[in-house]
Amino acid sequence: MAALCALVLPAALMAQQSGDILPFKASEKTLANGLKVIVVPTGFPNIVSVQIPVQTGSRNEVEPGKSGFAHFFEHMMFRGTKAYPPDVYNTIITKAGARQNASTSDDITLFYATFAKEDLEKILEIEADRFKNLSYSEAAFKTEARAVLGEYNKNSANPINKLDEVQREAAYTTHTYKHTTMGFIKDIEDMPNQYEYSKTFFERWYRPEHVAIVVAGDVDPNRVFQIVEKYWSDWKPGATKVDVPQEPPATHPVYAHVPWPTPTLPWVTVAFHGPSIFQTKDAAAISTLLDLEFGETSDIYKRLVQDEQKVDAIFTDWGPYWDPGLITVYARVKDLNDSVYVRDEIMKVFAAARDKQLDAQRVADSKSNSRYSFVGSLTNTEAIARTVARYAVYERSYDTLNRFFRVLADITPADIQDVARKYVTTNNLVVTTLSQKPMPDAMSKLPAVEQFSAASQSGQQVQIKFLEQKSVIPNVMIKLLFTVGSANDPKGKEGLAELAASMITDAGSKSMRVDEIQKALFPMAGSFGSQVDKEMTTFTAVVHKDNLPKFLDIVLPQLLTPGFREEDFSRLKDAQLNALENDLRGSNDEELGKEELQNVIFAGTPYGHTPLGTVTGIKSITLDDVKKFVAGNYKATNIVVALSGDYPDTLTKRLSTDLGSLGAGPEEMTIAQLPAINGHKATGLEVEIVKKDTRATAISLGHPIPVTREDPDFAALNLARVWLGEHRASLGRLYDRIRETRGLNYGDYAYVEYFNRPGFQFFPSPNIARRSQLFEIWIRPVVPMNTQMALRIALYETQKMIDNGLSQEDFDNTKNYVMKNVYLLTSTQGQRLGYALDSWWYGMPDYVDYMRAQYAKLTRQQVNAALKKYLSAKNMSVVIITKDAEGLRDTLLKDDPSSIKYDAPKPELAQEDKVIGSYKLNLKPENVKIVNVEDVFTK
Asked: Which CATH class is domain 249-377+401-453?
C-alpha cells in the first residue's frame, strides 16, 4: 500500500506533451477464459518482470468475521501445489536468479517476480500452476494462520498501523474498508478455525476474470501470448458474483483515540471521506490538492515542521481506492499540548481549499515536477512492470495509467476547489489521535469545517471590492487600501496606525523572518510597502508577472499572518520615533513647518497629529496595541483592492479568498459616510514661532477650506492655486515674485490639498485623500532678515489675487496648462492606480476625465467667485521655524515697514517693495506664540 501511495500522492502527474506518460508500445490480449495479458517491451536487455495483480484485497472480505483473508492468501500462495511443492517451486525460482514476493492492500493482491529472460516460460508455467492448483492441508493452513497473527503482533508495535486500524473502524459503518488489510484482530485470532471458508474465498476471487498478467522487459509479445495460452488458458472462470456493500453518505463527524501503552510522540490525523479511483477527475484533483497543500513545499509543512517546529513529520495518504476511500493527513506532534492547534491548522488548510483556488502557476509547477519525477522513476524493467500492474488492476488495461495521467494533466485550480467543496465537509470529517497521555479535552470536540472558512468566520460572505486596470505592462501592481489611518489612532497612542502598517510590510510573517523575506524578494525585484495618512492605509505590492505566484506566497502572509516578533516591533518603533524626532523635527525645517501647520489648525480633532504620531504616543505603544489594531482594522470589509498590469484572470479570485480570511469588521468608509472635521479658523493672523537652532527660516501659512476634490468648486480653486503657486514649477505667481524676481529662496508654492514629502517629489502622492483640507502657502526657507518681507509678499500677492481675480489671459493660460498637466498626475502605473482608489473614496468618476470635463466648462468668473468665497489672506494660521524666535516675534508685532537688501540693484522693484514692505500684518500679541522645537510633536 505504501508503495502504491508513493506513486499516486505526488499529485498532478502529467502526460508527456507529445503523447502518453508511458512511452512504451504495449500489446494486450484477453484469453477466452477472461484472463488479461499485457506485454510491455521496455528496451532494457536480458531481464523480464512478471507482475500478476489480482482484483482482491481487504475490500473483498464481505462476510462478517472473515476479514484478513486476502492478506492470508498472499502467504498461502507460496504453499505450493502437488506438481510444484514449496521446495520444488523455490528451487526453480532460485535457479532463475529471480527476485520474488507479493503484497496486499485494500483492493489488490500483487504477485511478482523478476528474472533472466530465458526463464520466462518456466516462471509462467509454475505461476499458472499455483493459481490454478493451489493445494494446502488444514495443518498447513493453521500454521500459516498463526504466522499471520505473528505478523499482526509485529505490526502492532507501530503506532501508525494501530492508528489506521482505529481510524478505519470509526470511519466506516458498512463498507469493508472498515478493517485494514490485516483484518480485525478477533478475526485473525479465529482464522485457524476457518479452513473451509478459506477454500471458498480462494475459489471466489482467484479466477481469470479477476486477474491480469503483466510481462515487461526483453520480451516478444507474440511469444508471451503463446506461453500464456499454453499454461493459463484452461483456468476456469468463476461462477459466483459477490457485491461489496457500499458506504452510505456520512451523517456526522467522527473522532477516535488510541491510548498507546508505551512512550511515543502523539499522532493527529485529519481525514475526509473521498473519491474512488473510478471518479478519475476527483481522484486526480485530490492528489494535486494533497501534494500542493500538505507536501514538503507547502506553507503548512514549512510552518509546522520548519518554523514553529511543532511537528516533526507531516504526510498524506489517499489510496487510490476502488471504492470511495479516506483522504488523510498525518502529523506527529512534539508536544501533546499542541495537538489541538495542529488539528485546527490542518483543517484551516482544507477549509481554505474550499474557499480559494490554488494559484495556477503553483498547479502547473506541481504538474511539471510530478511528470518528470514519475518518468524519472521508470529506470528499470521491474519498476515499469510494477507501475503498470498497480494501475492495470482496476480495469485490467495498460491504458488505465495513461488515461489517469491525461486527466491529471488537465486538472485546473477550479477543479481542485470544486473537489474540496465536495469532500471537505463537516459530515465527512474523521479525526483520529494516538498518545500515551490523554489528549486535551478540546480534541474530542470536533469543530465544523465551516468554522475555518474565510467567508464563514464572521458568519457572513465578504465581498472584496476590486478596481482593475488591466494593461500590457509586465509589472503587476496591487494596492490594498484599508479605510483606516492616523485619524483612528487611539488617544495617547498617536502613531499606532503607522507602526501597525510597518509591522506588516517591514517585519516578518509567521512563516518567514524579515531577512528571509528580503532575500526571497531580491532576485524577483519585488517590493511591498505601506503608506499611512489620516484616512487611508495603503499597501502597495509590485512584481513582474513571471514572479507573481511566488511573490504573493511571500508577501500575503505578512498581512494575513503577521509574525509580530518583538525584535521587529522594537526596531520599527525606534525607527518611527527617530523619523519623527530626528528626521522630521530635527532635519527638515520646511516639512516640519508644514506638518505643524496641519497640527495647529486641526488641534483637538482626529487630524491633530502627524501620521507619524507623537513622541509620547509612540513611546506608549506596545506590541499588543499593534496586534489589537491590526486585528480590529485590517478586515475584508474595509478593504478596496486595485490591480494594474498584465496580471492573470485568476488573481482576483485568489485575492478574494486570501483577503477574505481577514474576516468581517468595520465597513469601508468613504468621505460621504464620514462627518466633517472642522479646522480652526484664525481671526486675523495667528503665528506660532518654533524656536530651533537653524540657519534659515521656513514659513507655512494657511486656513481650512470646506472644499475637497469631489466638490463642484474644487476645479476653480485648483486652477487658481496653480496660477498662484504650482508645486515645484516656475509658472506660479509666488515663485515669480519671491524666488525668481527677488531671489529670496528656492521656491514658493500654494496648495488646496495636502501634499506629502513636497521637497522630494514633483507630483502629489495618491491615497492621501482627506475629508478636510487647507488652503496653504509654502515659503521655502529664507534668510532670517527676510522673514517678515517674504511673509508680506505672500500675503500681498494672495490678497491681490482674491481682490482682483485672474485676468482673462492668466485664466486662459492656466486653464490650458491644467487641461494638459492633469495627464501627468496619472502618468505612472502607481499614480493612475492610486488616483482610481482616491476617486472611489471621493465618490467621483475617473480623475483625469472628470477634471478635464470640469476645467473645460470652467469660466474666469467662476474661478474669481470661488476665490472670494473660500480664500482669505487676512485670517490665516502661520508657522515659522527660526532660531531667533523672540527677535522675530518682536519684529512682527512692531509691524514696521520691511525691505530687502539686494546683492545687485533692482530699481524696478523699489516702488513695489515699498508698497509690500508697508503691508500691515496687524498682529496681536496674544496671537503670537513661541514654541521650543523639542515640544513640537511631543504629545
From this structure: alpha beta
Q: Is residue 116 exposed (0-12), middle (13-18) or buried (19+ Cβ within 10 Å)?
A: middle
Amino acid residing at 5: C
Residues 6+ apart with CB under 8 A from 842: 670, 671, 708, 709, 710, 769
DSSP H helices, 670-807, are 714-725, 733-734, 787-804
At 12 the pLDDT is: 26
714-746 b/e with 16+ CB inside 10 Å = b? bbbbbbbbbbbbbbeeeebbbbebbbeebebbb
How many CB atoms lie under 10 A from the CB of residue 713? 18
Burial class (CB in 10 A: 0-12, 13-18, 19+), 191: buried
**Selecting from 3.40.50.460, 3.30.830.10, 3.10.20.340, 3.30.300.30, what CATH number does the domain 26-235 have?**
3.30.830.10
Q: How many whole angstroms separate alpha carbon 765 and alpha carbon 779?
A: 20
- Cα 306 to its chain centre, rounded Å, is 18
List, in sequence order, every residue forming a beta bridge with 272; answer none if it has no partner. Answer: 327, 429
**Residue spans of alpha helices (H) in 120-261:** 120-133, 138-155, 159-171, 185-190, 195-205, 221-232
For 123-149, what is each residue's pLDDT tens digit?
999 999 999 999 888 888 888 887 788
Residue 922 has pLDDT above 80, yes or no: yes
Q: Which three cell numbers stand for residue 420?
A: 474540496
Rounded CA gap, 260 and 270, in Å?
A: 18
Q: What is the pLDDT of residues 498-551, one digit of tens each?
A: 999 999 999 999 889 999 999 999 999 999 999 999 999 999 999 999 999 999
State how beta strands 212-217 and 36-41 pair: parallel
Q: Are 608 and 602 in contact (CB under 8 A)?
A: yes
Q: How far is CA 507 from CA 308, 484, 565, 631, in A?
A: 17, 20, 8, 16
How does pLDDT run across 416-447, given as a tens digit for each residue? 999 999 999 999 999 999 999 999 999 999 99
What is residue 498's three-state secondary structure? helix
Q: What percent of the chain has pLDDT over 90?
A: 70
Phi, psi of 881, deg, nearest 5: -105, 120
Instruction: Please tell me the predicted confidence (pLDDT) of residue 6.
Output: 32
Q: Is 137 exposed, middle or buried (0-12, 13-18, 19+ CB in 10 A)?
A: exposed
Least confident of 37-46, 190-199, 269-278: 190-199
CATH classification number, 685-935, choose in 3.30.830.10, 3.40.50.960, 1.10.287.130, 3.90.950.20: 3.30.830.10
CB neighbourhood size of 308 (10 A): 16
- 406 compared with 154, residue with greater pLDDT: 406
How many whole angstroms separate alpha carbon 229 and alpha carbon 887?
A: 117
Buried b (16+ CB within 10 A) or exposed e, 826-852: beebbbbbbbbbbbbbbebeebbebbb
**DSSP-based three-state secondary structure for 316:** strand
**Residue 295 CB neighbour total at 10 angstroms:** 18
Look up residue 205 and give its three cell numbers: 476471487
Q: Which three cell numbers stand for residue 83?
A: 506438481
DSSP state at residue 668? P
d(CA 183, CA 168): 11
CATH classification of 465-673, choosing from 3.30.160.250, 1.10.1040.10, 3.40.50.300, 3.30.830.10? 3.30.830.10
Q: Is the pLDDT of residue 8 over 60?
A: no
Q: Does the bond joining 245 to the residue before it have cis omega, within 30 degrees of 0?
A: no
* CA gap 242, 255 in Å, rounded: 32
Region(s) of the chain under CATH 3.30.830.10: 26-235, 249-377+401-453, 465-673, 685-935
